[in-house]
Design goal:
Blueprint: E1 8-16, E2 19-26, E3 30-38, H1 40-46, E4 53-54, E5 58-60, E6 63-70, E7 83-90, E8 102-111, E9 117-124, E10 128-130, E11 138-146, H2 147-151, E12 160-170, E13 173-179, H3 189-199, E14 205-209, E15 212-216, H4 218-224, H5 226-233, E16 243-245, H6 251-263, H7 274-288, H8 291-311
Parallel strand pairs: 14-16
Antiparallel strand pairs: 1-2, 2-13, 3-12, 4-6, 5-6, 6-7, 7-11, 8-9, 8-10, 8-12, 14-15
Helix pairs in contact: 3-6, 4-5, 6-7, 7-8
């Protein structure tokens, strides 16, 4: 399964002979309607359970719709109604009896005083057919909101509140045939930088750690570490040709640090080497402010602990 950029809800992709065909269930026509209730308590007192008030008609996707507002719910048999129902109805006037069903995706929302949907009272349903399996021309939320909840909220003010219904009509199936996209290989920048480190081509700085010397490139170190940047390009930068001593880290750990700086990965190491190496690298990551190196090493350490616990 894959999704199409043309607002498709479902698609299936098949490739053959250098081309690609995509079967798309298009979801194009979209619109919404806002229904404002001015006189909530009056309508609640005037309309019994099962009785509704209709919004004006509105058009989405060549079809006419209207919202049905039930101040005391849509269940006419309920003796003590305590909730509001909302339904969306498709107007079948002028439609042929054998016309195909209309499929639509609906979202009902209670609006706040700024006219924005209230997240806790926004409901997105499945794609519905009009008429439905029982022949009904409407679909909605029998228990959209309880009276007490609305009355105790800030969304009812001066006896007024508003709801919004978003409608997306699902059109028919489209078949698109497009040239197959070129296969773009994954980035191998890290391979080139690793080779640059190992060959020393163009290196312009020498560092010494654990009695061993290493060549590197100032610009790479500075790009990866703000501490290296300040040391190599700041007012106290070393003179050209001078070897910089790096304390508090052995040669193996410093080699791993450089490897990470150039490739964003750690070199291969045995499980026995991980604890000591990771601890040194975590300290180096703190010192040189290479945050991702610290997280990678902490993850490796936690995996080692899990492995040892499983082995006990």
């Amino acid at each position: 399964m894959s999704s199409s950029s043309a607002a498709a809800s479902t698609s299936f992709v098949a490739e053959a002979n250098g081309s690609m065909s995509t079967i798309v269930v298009a979801a194009k026509p979209t619109g919404h309607h806002v229904l404002k209730i001015d006189g909530y308590y009056r309508t609640k007192a005037m309309f019994a359970a099962g009785k509704s008030i209709h919004s004006c008609r509105f058009q989405v996707g060549d079809h006419i719709w209207r919202i049905k507002y039930y101040p005391n719910g849509n269940d006419s048999g309920k003796e003590k109604p305590d909730y509001i129902s909302l339904m969306l109805e498709l107007d079948f006037a002028g439609r042929k009896p054998d016309a195909t069903a209309v499929k639509a995706h609906l979202v009902f929302s209670l609006l706040d005083q700024d006219g924005e949907p209230v997240p806790s009272r926004t409901y997105s349903g499945k794609v519905q057919s009009f008429p439905g399996p029982s022949g009904s021309s409407s679909w909605g939320l029998p228990k959209f909101i309880y009276h007490d909840e609305l009355e105790n909220s800030e969304n009812l003010k001066d006896d007024r509140f508003a709801v919004r219904c978003d409608v997306t009509v699902i059109k028919g199936i489209e078949l698109r045939v497009e040239p197959a996209s070129l296969a773009v290989p994954e980035s191998d920048l890290h391979c080139h930088l690793r080779r640059l480190l190992s060959t020393g081509d163009g290196a312009d700085i020498t560092l010494k750690a654990g009695g061993k010397t290493f060549t590197a490139h100032r610009c790479v170190l500075a790009a990866r570490s703000p501490v290296f940047k300040a040391a190599l390009y700041g007012d106290m930068r070393p003179a050209a040709g001078r070897c910089i001593d790096v304390d508090d880290i052995d040669a193996g750990a410093f080699r791993a640090l450089l490897h990470f700086v150039y490739t964003d990965t750690l070199p291969e190491m045995t499980s026995q080497d991980v604890p000591a190496m990771a601890r040194q690298l975590i300290a180096a990551a703190d010192k040189y402010q290479v945050e991702r190196l610290k997280l990678v090493c902490e993850d490796k350490l936690s995996r080692c602990v899990d492995m040892w616990e499983c082995g006990e």
